[in-house]
Amino acid sequence: MLGQGAAGIDDCVSDVRRAVVHVRRLAALRGLEKQCLASGGSSAGAHLALLAAMTDPGVAAVVALNPAGLDLLAFPPEVRRSIEQRAGIAAGRAIDYSLIEFVRPGSPPMLIQHGTADEVEPIDHVRRFRDAMVLAGNECTLLEYDHAEHAFHYPGNGRHFDDVIDATVRFLLDRIAAT
């Protein structure tokens, strides 16, 4: 995590990839099959889970809560530069981490839960990402929470916690049942 041992986003991506490999190894030792493994995260963690799943599929599904970085090039240049600086991305290299640039057929099913008033990643970026994923033939479900801001899903941050947990469980159980 940035500020906790990671110098930049590349360190974070490497950590996530190592974690996926480690979890796959542990799952195999315990007799769990790949179709039972899912990943997910919130905000920057959701970005990392999605990036890992889209570039090196190792999980059967991804749950992303208010993901950041879906369409970095849609931000005005000054905002993009600020994001690059805060995330440890080399100047002018936001395209290398903008998830919409990684959309290809064959990504694992994704559930994105996002607030319509998210101040970090605008809902129109999320809708554009979802549409690109579906157009590429991938399953990408977007659940929108009206007037919810970033981090809306945490206990105590509003009325959505139970709905987010219920939707996540249904999504994951449906994926496991389909295998």
UniProtKB/TrEMBL annotation:
Pfam families: BD-FAE
Keywords assigned: Hydrolase
Stored Gene3D superfamilies: alpha/beta hydrolase
Domain named BD-FAE-like: residues: 9-56
GO molecular function: hydrolase activity
Superkingdom, natural source: Bacteria
Stated name of the protein: BD-FAE-like domain-containing protein
Organism in which the protein naturally occurs: Virgisporangium aurantiacum
